[in-house]
Prior knowledge:
The chain is built from 3 helices and 5 strands; from the N terminus they run E-H-E-E-E-H-E-H. The protein is of the alpha/beta class. The chain is globular and about 40 Å long. The two termini are 15 Å apart.
Amino acid sequence: MKIFFIPTCPKHKNRLEAMKKTWIPKEDSSSFKIFYVYSNPNNTKEEVRGRNLILPHEELYQNLFLKTHGSFRFFSEAFPKAECVVKMDDDVNIECFSTVLEQIDKMLEHNVN
Length: 113
């Protein structure tokens, strides 16, 4: 299984909605899961709500490293058998998500990290 995560914030809601309308699959499959990562200082630990992962810190651009690091740590612990964990930005436009999956499969076949 491949894990994709997109760090985002309420301020970028329009970006994420555009991605959902154009290329993000509506449902996960047996080969991938997609998560949108937010922060909330009121959380005491990581929390998953559907496709949303909420991390326990302030939603600030200066905390992007914390969000990215926390996401990789969470997903590596929650999905220890994942083939890969891929970070994507919330301003990415992809023509075809299945092509991304195919390219990742080719890289995995050749042990490209």
